[in-house]
Amino acid sequence: MEHRWWSLKKEGRAEEPFCPDSVRERKRDSKNNEQQSVERIAQMAKKTYDLLFKLLLIGDSGVGKTCVLFRFSDDAFNTTFISTIGIDFKIKTVELQGKKIKLQIWDTAGQERFHTITTSYYRGAMGIMLVYDITNAKSFENISKWLRNIDEHANEDVERMLLGNKCDMEDKRIVPKAKGEQIAKEHGIRFFETSAKANINIEKAFLTLAEDILRKTPVKEATSENVDISTGGGVTGWKTKCC
Ligand SMILES: Nc1nc2c(ncn2[C@@H]2O[C@H](COP(=O)(O)OP(=O)(O)OP(=O)(O)O)[C@@H](O)[C@H]2O)c(=O)[nH]1
Ligand SMILES: [Mg+2]
């Protein structure tokens, strides 16, 4: 090795320390990888949407919140009931009025034991879908409890929507459509009967909610600085109840 170093010196290439080809190649590869990683991160950080809306699904366990979301995000349905543990989310970007809107949709567990964790997600929500099951009277009776939760934990100006899900099960219906319409009217909120299974009104409900939010959103575009995907996330500029 010493000999080679000496001979390079002699050849006038002494400023370039001895480096076997394999080492040089590895160095070049790692530099390329580094550059590729930087480019990939830059690409990911690049804004691919104009606005970010944070939505939340709430309602009793088993009413079909996860299925409603799964139908909207993946156009799929699962008959197996796998109760949500705590909280989950899906992302879907839609285009409304020429704007790319990234919907970050949080799916909460309906089980009471997750109440503390799920209510902590209300604060940053710009839209809340409150779901009941038209074949389950209890889930309808609990609507007032869920609305109280919204009043207590969500932003003042959160956009609310009521969904009566499983409307494909007409033979098992217990809650008349008129009752859903009435309670929604009393609280000044929109109402749809939906079916995640038969894909009825699912997309319409999400797009309507997004449109309603868009209508009252100040023209402030999402940037990496004003978007927060933690529990209190959403596009900033929204009033919150606390400080
Ligand atoms: N027939 C019918 N069944 C549905 C529909 N939506 C959901 N289900 C069924 O209802 C059950 C519960 O659905 P989930 O979406 O897991 O309920 P959830 O509200 O997310 O429940 P938690 O996660 O415990 O809060 C599953 O067996 C689904 O297949 C629907 O539109 N029609
Ligand atoms: Mg669920």
TrEMBL record:
An example Gene Ontology cellular component term from the record? phagocytic vesicle membrane
CDD domains for this protein: Rab8_Rab10_Rab13_like
Q: What is this enzyme's class at the first EC digit?
A: hydrolase
In which domain of life is the source organism classified? Eukaryota
TM ranges: none
The prosthetic group or cofactor this protein requires is: Mg(2+)
- Name its GO BP terms in alphabetical order: protein transport
Q: Which SUPFAM superfamilies match?
A: P-loop containing nucleoside triphosphate hydrolases
Q: Does the keyword Ligase apply?
A: no
The catalysed reaction is: GTP + H2O = GDP + phosphate + H(+)
Q: Where in the cell is it found?
A: Cytoplasmic vesicle membrane; Cytoplasmic vesicle, Phagosome membrane; Endosome membrane
KW Glycoprotein (keyword) present: no
Alphabetically ordered keywords of this record: Cytoplasmic vesicle, GTP-binding, Lipoprotein, Membrane, Nucleotide-binding, Prenylation, Protein transport, Transport
Q: Where is the composition biased (Basic and acidic residues)?
A: 13-32
**Descriptive protein name:** small monomeric GTPase
According to its UniProt entry, this protein's organism is Danionella cerebrum
